[in-house]
C-alpha cells in the first residue's frame, strides 16, 4: 500500500518522540514514525550494557514539558530513562503512529510533486511532504578490525548490542576502549569475571560522579509545589551553561577540574606506573569528560589489568598485544564507540538534481544550516544533525529547539501557499563559516587530542560551539529569507490539500 503523509519521522528516541509530540500540539496528525526496532527508546533501548546510566542530571536530561517528579537518582540509570520514554509514548498515544520493525532505507525527492518517496526495510513504499530524521548520531557501532579476529572462537560483541546470555563467572574478558561506555561497563564486569583486560588507547579524564538518591521530601516538593521542579531544572541548566565557557575557549578554566581528576586517580590507584598510564596528556574537555566513582577502583582490583599496548593479533582463544604478550580470553567486548561523521551514509537519500547526500557529505563534509536543513534536500530535517552535539549539557535542549524549528518550518510552507522549502546554499555556507571560526577556538581543537568530533578531513562536524541558549535563539523562528519556497507542478496541485 502506498501512503501519502504530511510528515514521516524516523526514530523513536528523545528526538523522534519529542518531534511527534510537537506535531500533535501543532495539529499535524497525518504523520507516521518509522522505528526499525520493536520498541521506542533509541539509544536508551539499544544500550543495555551493565552499568549504563546517564552522565547528565535526569532533571535536565528529559523533556522540559514532560517533567518527571520522582527521578530516583540525580543521574538516571538506563532503565529509568527507557521507562520514562516508554511512558511518554503511552501518555501521548504515540504508539499507534509508530510503525515498529520498519526501517528507512532510502528517500528520493520528487520535485514535481514536492514530496519524498521513501523505501523501507519491509519493502513498503511511503510518500510524504516532510521528512524528519531523528536517528541520532550514536547508533552505528564503530568496529575496528582486530588482526586475526576471524580465528577467535570466543564471543565478540559491541557495547550497544549487549550479549545478555553470556555468563561472566569464571570467564576471561577483554574490553577494547575506555570512553563513556567503557568506563561504565568495566566495573560490573570486573566484579563478575575471573579476569578482565582493559585495552586503553588513550586515557580519558574521569571526574568523580556526585550522584545521590533524590530525597523523598524533594520528590514530594516537585510533585506538590508548582514551579519547584522548574526552578531546580533551571539551576542545573544555567550551572551547566557556565561550563560552555571552558569548552569554547577559556582553556585555563580546566586547571581546577584536571587537578580534581588527578586526585581522583591518586585516591584509588596506588601503583605509580598505573597512575601515569591513566593520566591524560591533553586538556580536559578535548574528549568527552567522563564521570565515575567505580572505574578506578575496578582497575585497582587484582583480577583487572590495564593494557596500553594495542591488539596485534587475535588467536583462537587469546589476544596478543603489540609487545608480544599473549593473554587467554573467552570474550572480546568492543566499547569503541560509534561512527559519527558518516552515520547517515547507509541511507540512500537523493535530493534535487539527483544529489546523493552521502556522496555530498563525503566530499564536502557533513553540513546543514543550523544543523537541521541541507541545501538541495527540501523539506528534510535532521534532528541532532551536523554540529548540534553538546558536551557541556543535555542534548535534549538542542532537540527541543530543533523540534520547534521543524514545526515552524512546516507552518511557513503551509501559510505561504508553497509546498516545500529549501535552504539557500549561501545561507548554509555562511553558517558553516561562522561555526567553524568559533570551533577553532574551542578545546576540541586546541586541547591536544584526537576525537571523533572531527571527520577524515580534520573538520569538526559534530559540536555546537557555544551556549545552548544561542542555538535556542538562532532556531526560535524560521527566517523566510533563508529559504527558497518551492511549488508543485500544476498537474500535482491536488496534493495541496494534505
Ligand atoms: P567513545 O567515547 O568514542 O570511546 C571509544 C573508545 O574506544 C575510546 O577509548 C577509543 O580510544 C577506543 N577506540 C576506538 N577505536 C579504537 C581502536 N581502533 N583501538 C583501540 N581503541 C579504540 O565511545 P563510547 O564510549 O561508546 O561513547 C560514545 C558516546 O556515547 C559518548 O561520547 C557519549 O556522547 C555517548 N555516551 C553517553 C553516555 C552518558 O552517560 N550520557 C554513556 C555512554 C555513551 P581513543 O580515545 O584513543 O580514540
From TrEMBL:
<keyword id="KW-0560">Oxidoreductase</keyword>
<dbReference type="Pfam" id="PF00743">
    <property type="entry name" value="FMO-like"/>
</dbReference>
<comment type="similarity">
    <text>Belongs to the FAD-binding monooxygenase family.</text>
</comment>
<dbReference type="InterPro" id="IPR051209">
    <property type="entry name" value="FAD-bind_Monooxygenase_sf"/>
</dbReference>
<dbReference type="GO" id="GO:0004499">
    <property type="term" value="F:N,N-dimethylaniline monooxygenase activity"/>
</dbReference>
<keyword id="KW-0274">FAD</keyword>
<dbReference type="InterPro" id="IPR036188">
    <property type="entry name" value="FAD/NAD-bd_sf"/>
</dbReference>
<dbReference type="GO" id="GO:0050660">
    <property type="term" value="F:flavin adenine dinucleotide binding"/>
</dbReference>
<keyword id="KW-0285">Flavoprotein</keyword>
<dbReference type="InterPro" id="IPR020946">
    <property type="entry name" value="Flavin_mOase-like"/>
</dbReference>
<protein>
    <submittedName>
        <fullName>NAD(P)/FAD-dependent oxidoreductase</fullName>
    </submittedName>
</protein>
<dbReference type="GO" id="GO:0050661">
    <property type="term" value="F:NADP binding"/>
</dbReference>
Amino acid at each position: 500500500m502506498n501512503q501519502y503523509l504530511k510528515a514521516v519521522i524516523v526514530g523513536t528516541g528523545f528526538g523522534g518522540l519529542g518531534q511527534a509530540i510537537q506535531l500533535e500540539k501543532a495539529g499535524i496528525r497525518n504523520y507516521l514514525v518509522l522505528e526499525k526496532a520493536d520498541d521506542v527508546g533509541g539509544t536508551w533501548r539499544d544500550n543495555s550494557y551493565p552499568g549504563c546510566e546517564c552522565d547528565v542530571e535526569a532533571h535536565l536530561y528529559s523533556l522540559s514539558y514532560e517533567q518527571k517528579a520522582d527521578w530516583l537518582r540525580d543521574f538516571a540509570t538506563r532503565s529509568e530513562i527507557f521507562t520514562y520514554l516508554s511512558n511518554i509514548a503511552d501518555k501521548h498515544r504515540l504508539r499507534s503512529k509508530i510503525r515498529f520493525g520498519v526501517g528507512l532505507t532510502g528517500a528520493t525527492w520528487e520535485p514535481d510533486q514536492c514530496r519524498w518517496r521513501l523505501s523501507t526495510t519491509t519493502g513498503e513504499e511511503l510518500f510524504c511532504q516532510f521528512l524528519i530524521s531523528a536517528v541520532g548520531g550514536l547508533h552505528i557501532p564503530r568496529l575496528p578490525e582486530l588482526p586475526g579476529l576471524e580465528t577467535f572462537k570466543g564471543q565478540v560483541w559491541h557495547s550497544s548490542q549487549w550479549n545478555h546470555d553470556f555468563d561472566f563467572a569464571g570467564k576471561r574478558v577483554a574490553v577494547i576502549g575506555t570512553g563513556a561506555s567503557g568506563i561504565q561497563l568495566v566495573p560490573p564486569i570486573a566484579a563478575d569475571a575471573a579476569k578482565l583486560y582493559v585495552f586503553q588507547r588513550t586515557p580519558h579524564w574521569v571526574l568523580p560522579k556526585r550522584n545521590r538518591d533524590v530525597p523523598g521530601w524533594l520528590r514530594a516538593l516537585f510533585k506538590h509545589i508548582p514551579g519547584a521542579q522548574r526552578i531546580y531544572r533551571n539551576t542545573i541548566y544555567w550551572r551547566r551553561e557556565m561550563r560552555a565557557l571552558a569548552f569554547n575557549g577559556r582553556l585555563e578554566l580546566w586547571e581546577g577540574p584536571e587537578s580534581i581528576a588527578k586526585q581522583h586517580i591518586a585516591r584509588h590507584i596506588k601503583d605509580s606506573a598505573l597512575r601515569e598510564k591513566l593520566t591524560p596528556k591533553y586538556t580536559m574537555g578535548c574528549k568527552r569528560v567522563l564521570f565515575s566513582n567505580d572505574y578506578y577502583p575496578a582497575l585497582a582490583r587484582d583480577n583487572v589489568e590495564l593494557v596500553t599496548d594495542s591488539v596485534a593479533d587475535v588467536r583462537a582463544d587469546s589476544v596478543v598485544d603489540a609487545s608480544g604478550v599473549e593473554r587467554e580470553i573467552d570474550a572480546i567486548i568492543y566499547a569503541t564507540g560509534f561512527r559519527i561523521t558518516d552515520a547517515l551514509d547507509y541511507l540512500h537519500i537523493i535530493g534535487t538534481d539527483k544529489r546523493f547526500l552521502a556522496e555530498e557529505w563525503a566530499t564536502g563534509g557533513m553540513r546543514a544550516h543550523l544543523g537541521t536543513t541541507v541545501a538541495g534536500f527540501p523539506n528534510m530535517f535532521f534532528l541532532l544533525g551536523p554540529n548540534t552535539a553538546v558536551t557541556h549539557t543535555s542534548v535534549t535542549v538542542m532537540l527541543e529547539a530543533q523540534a520547534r524549528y521543524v514545526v515552524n518550518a512546516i507552518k511557513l510552507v503551509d501559510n505561504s501557499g508553497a509546498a516545500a522549502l529549501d535552504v539557500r546554499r549561501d545561507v548554509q555556507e555562511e553558517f558553516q563559516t561562522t561555526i567553524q571560526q568559533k570551533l577553532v577556538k574551542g578545546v576540541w581543537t586546541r586541547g591536544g587530542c584526537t576525537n571523533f568530533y572531527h571527520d577524515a578531513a580534520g573538520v569538526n562536524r559534530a559540536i555546537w560551539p557555544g551556549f545552548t541558549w544561542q542555538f535556542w535563539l538562532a532556531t526560535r523562528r524560521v527566517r523566510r529569507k533563508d529559504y527558497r519556497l518551492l511549488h508543485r507542478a500544476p498537474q500535482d496541485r491536488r496534493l495541496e490539500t494534505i
